[in-house]
Amino acid sequence: MTAAIQVEQLAHRYGQRFIYQDLSFSVPEGKVVALLGKNGVGKTTLIRLLMGFLRPSAGQCQVLGEPSHALSPRTRARIGLLFEGHLAYDFMTIAQIERFYRPFYRRWRRELYYDLVDRLGLSPDHKIGDMSCGQRSQVVLGLIFAQDPDLMILDDYSMGLDAGYRRLFLDYLRRFLDEGGKTVFVTSHVVQDMESLVDEVIFLQRGGAVKQLPLADFRRQFRCFGFQVEGDAPPQADGLIENVDLHGREPVLYSFAAPERLAAHLATHWPQVRLGDEQALTLEDAFIGLTGKY
Ligand SMILES: Nc1ncnc2c1ncn2[C@@H]1O[C@H](COP(=O)(O)OP(=O)(O)OP(=O)(O)O)[C@@H](O)[C@H]1O
């Protein structure tokens, strides 16, 4: 399968501080892939690298078959980018910005822009600089859908959108995906939105460790169990135990291992621990279980 994004042995540092040292993953064409990670792990930095706004300290990224630091205008026009501070032309009006963007894109779909933006109930000569944060987001999203891109890169699309507009955006995104052949690479802190949208997840940890797997596999394999300890030596994360934490008041441990394998592992390495019941997890619980609360 062709990769829309291919990242190989990527390293990036700000000053002396490495954000990642050896990051590799790929986003297959036609898939929706979410990059999830806690604040400050380097999600936005990665998008800057993918778009060629930053040059990596080492390693490489390819986007739609071109090196990210040398993307041609033609390839850039195939990428719909939602990025913090992206809407720089806030002196323009709703109508002016649409006219400004239109000539850059061969498949421009003006009706999609106005379909989203008309819902704001503002006149076409309303200035972008005089809009609320959520309204501006709506304008940016309208511009991105109108581009009809082959690849959408969305950095925290929920920025400022209220629950209704977030749903509206997700409905648009699903319709966009129904057209087929589209790839979406998304970062979000609204983990529950990912459940019905995403094919694969990439968990990025501080220091650059990554785990990529189909969302369905993550939901099926990643489990949470209560446990009891004899004495005062609780288990610690190890090769099989991903994390140990409190779920409410109950101590729990998280693992990708099946219960029998985990019980055998505990009997050998943590004999003072008795495995309790499996707990149901929302996607957000599972995300926190894997990455930790803070
Ligand atoms: N220009 C910069 N100079 C120095 N450090 C930076 C710079 N930009 C970002 N950082 C640091 O790099 C790390 C990664 O930042 P980045 O914005 O990529 O994280 P993020 O995963 O997108 O975070 P969030 O989820 O909070 O948006 C952070 O520790 C941040 O402080």
Structure overview:
- By secondary structure, the chain is α/β, with parallel strands linked by helices.
- The chain folds into two domains: 3-217, P-loop containing nucleotide triphosphate hydrolases (Rossmann fold, 3-Layer(aba) Sandwich), CATH 3.40.50; 222-291, 2-Layer Sandwich (Alpha-Beta Plaits).
- The protein contains ten helices and 14 strands.
- It has helices at 43-50, 73-76, 94-101, 110-117, 133-147, 163-178, 191-194, 215-221, 259-269, 283-291; strands at 3-14, 17-28, 32-36, 58-63, 66-67, 79-82, 151-155, 183-187, 200-204, 210-214, 223-229, 241-247, 250-255, 273-279.
- The protein has a six-stranded mixed sheet.
- A hairpin with a 2-residue loop joins β12 (241-247) and β13.
- The mean pLDDT is 91.
Task: Compile the SSE list and pairings.
Blueprint: E1 3-14, E2 17-28, E3 32-36, H1 43-50, E4 58-63, E5 66-67, H2 73-76, E6 79-82, H3 94-101, H4 110-117, H5 133-147, E7 151-155, H6 163-178, E8 183-187, H7 191-194, E9 200-204, E10 210-214, H8 215-221, E11 223-229, E12 241-247, E13 250-255, H9 259-269, E14 273-279, H10 283-291
Parallel strand pairs: 3-8, 3-9, 6-7, 7-8
Antiparallel strand pairs: 1-2, 1-4, 4-5, 9-10, 11-13, 11-14, 12-13
Helix pairs in contact: 4-5, 5-6
Bound molecules: adenosine-5'-triphosphate.
Q: In percent terms, what proportion of residues is strand?
A: 25-35%
Proportion in helices: 25-40%
Overall CATH architecture of the largest domain: 3-Layer(aba) Sandwich
CATH overall fold name of the largest domain = Rossmann fold
GO biological process, one term: methylation
Domain ABC transporter: 5-231
InterPro entries: AAA+_ATPase, ABC_transporter-like_ATP-bd, P-loop_NTPase
Protein name: Methyltransferase
